[in-house]
Sequence to fold (251 residues):
Amino acid sequence: MTGARPVPETAEGRDKLLELRGVTTHYGPIRVLHDVDMTIYPGEMVCLLGGNASGKSTTLKTILGIVGVSAGEMYFGGERADTLTTAERIERGMAVVPENRRIFPKMTVRENLEMGSYLRSDRGAIREDLSYVLSLFPRLGERMGQLGGTMSGGEQQMLALGRALMSRPKLILMDEPSMGLAPLFVEKIFEIIKQVNERGVSVFVVEQNANIALSVADRGYVLQTGEVVLSGPAHELLHDEGMKRAYLGEV
Ligand SMILES: Nc1ncnc2c1ncn2[C@@H]1O[C@H](COP(=O)(O)OP(=O)(O)O)[C@@H](O)[C@H]1O
Ligand SMILES: [Mg+2]
Fold:
């Protein structure tokens, strides 16, 4: 035995896909996230739960670099990432399905999907990914020439996820995919998210609908006024008494 050597700072995060260490963020003078620690391992589906205004969207924006960190560090694929621009993070494998879909309404379905592969030059692989997306969402294939903005909410959610997949991401970040969708459709979209995840893409999904998110995710974190108050395997959170009272609609 030669004794344990200290792990170098940068190597520590190497087998983690994403790591937030003590992340704090502000909007001007107002602190939103406080000392947040979060980890996503390769291949995982992790959900972020919490009430309205708890800081869920801010967490997603911080991961993407739309909001800067005022303290703490973030690593993506073992690399220090809080100093990277949003474009650099996307180049390294992040993709976002923003709140309320945010597809390009004046572009066709095809053009929206092409925007997702815009940073790539591997034409053969892009074609493969397009047929994969159209196999997940045959509806999009039937509507390639239609303007995105004329599709239903559910179809726009499919398009937003399809567009994200067209970048062949390592990590998909989703902000409340269930919002404004009928329950049957919510189930359908989570089923597809799970299928995508089972093919090896890691997923970080922000949700107010804790029941559906915990029924498909591997692990979850719960935010309350910008702090992580609970975390663990999804099946444990589903049966946690505090969770039931606060977020799962049971007494
Ligand atoms: N651009 C912004 N400027 C100032 N405050 C903001 C901004 N965006 C969000 N906030 C505030 O930050 C807090 C967390 O918001 P958000 O992350 O959107 O919460 P959630 O997604 O959980 O509903 C809220 O109090 C919200 O009002
Ligand atoms: Mg939000």
